[in-house]
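Dear Dr. H.,

I hope your travels went smoothly. While you were away I took the liberty of generating a structure for the chain from your last submission, since the lab meeting agenda had it listed for discussion. I wanted you to have the full record in hand beforehand rather than looking at slides cold. The sequence, exactly as received, is reproduced here:
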Amino acid sequence: MERKTWETMGRGAKMQPLGEAEQELLRRGYELFERFRIGLTEAHDEMRRARMIRQLRQDERSGTAPAGNTLGSCVDNAIADQIDNLPEAQLLPEREETARSAEEMSDVVSYVLYHAGWPGKYQTIMEDAVVTGTGVAEVFWDAEAEDGEGMVGVLAWHPEDFYPDPAVENLQDGRACFKVTHTTVDWVEAHYPHARGYVGEDRSLPWQEGLGEDAPQDDARTTLIEFWYKRYDAESRCTRVHMAQMAGGALLYSTELGFGGADKAAYADGVYAHGQYPFTLYKFRHVWRRPFGTGLIHDYRETQSAIDRYTKYIDDNARQSSIQRHFIRRGSGINAEDVADMRKTIIEWEGSDIREVLQTVQAQPLNGQVYEMLTYLADSMKQDCGQNQFTRGEAGLGVTAASAIEALQNAGNKITRWHTEIFKDAFREMVEQIIWVLSEYLEPGRTLRIVGGWDSTGQMRDRLVTLIAPGAEGAGLMRPAYAVRVQVQKNNPMQIQADNEFLQQVVEVCAKAGQPMPPETVVRLMEGYRTKNSVLAALEESSRTAQRIAQLEAENEALRKGVMPLEAEKTTL
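The corresponding predicted structure, in token form, is as follows:
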């Protein structure tokens, strides 16, 4: 296989006039990309095979029997579990003076995620993670959002089109990372007119082979490559992250060199002050010294292949059993065509015992172990991956005892909670990048109108929030004074049940203490997401209200006592 370089990528196009620095950047970008592509070939092939199984297009499948969907059903339920556990960010102040701004920034982060369509993006990321092993989220500054004022955006990117450094496990430790888009030469030249005539066609590139009929056929195809890399500044001891774009052997854009319309002065400290690649990987299961994880399909595809084989045995036996084969002795006087014609109910022949000259044979039923093995494999897959019948809301397995059912539910929920914690950690890293980008790119004093229930108690709010961006200190941006705590939103039924039980205990404690919680406060807390802090805040508010009522009652009593002697004196007169 020919090794692709930026010179061979430019075939069919004019040589782009570039300076020495631009040529070196282009050469380095394509050289690293080729190394990463080769190093990740096996991982990407595994992802594509997992996608095929997800689409019931297994490599080993019967031409007659249907492909089993037991594994696909487990994948669906694993994704649904994580959607039920949709994460939510709560910012905690690291200093007392930032307590109010931390509460407001929690609302702002929710605002950002809401306008980025986070629930839908999270569903895509979770499906990628469960199926291929890795979901990819990108945090970026969208200068065109909010009517040109700009806002942070979140993008879900399929891992087959993402190339981190294959030599490291942590994305941020890599030499670079690449995000690719399969498109056409005309599209690239329309969006980058300064590169017109210099973008070559790369129809024969290996990473185009997986596109099949989905790739554009009429136009010249090319691959737009987004090249993210880091530069370490030894003098200031900070890392600067830069981005370049290239396609078909042509350089399109560079933040470091100010090429393609980029403002070199604006990106002197890198694209983002946090100095990190703007990507977060949501891994279903981590793999030692590998950038990508493995998914549910990686674990159970062999079991699914066995289920498909046993299904084929049953299907073949059913087909064979539906056909009767007749053996007729030659010269017996029986017309074979009459025997084969099932419309004829009476067939005449000369002889005594028909069994001497004609035998009918039908396939024997399969051994019962085939059915038992098929059921065992399907049930064991559901059990092992945490998606047994009881966690899916089904009945089965011959279990009727409530304690046994609860134990099976807890067994499945343990696995779900474990993966949820892994995803919550990735979500925390993503939210930290959102805060950094907000702090860097928002204009000082800019206000946002926060409308709706984005606070932790679910209350509707309509207020203006002033975003306070920390100023620069020396060569770097001051670290935002918040710690990110990730919680699960309220659409998890198990979480709702646990929170309601906690709230019920709080209500009982208050009642026993002689300070009952008002019904409207209880209902409000039941409707929204409850944390320990939100319940404490509601109790403090209720206590203040009770104290105020007691004070007013005391004042009224004092006034009443002061009025009574005057009325008695008037009566005596």
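Two observations you may find useful: The first strand starts at residue 87 and ends at 93. The chain is about 45% helix and 15% strand.

With kind regards,
E. W.
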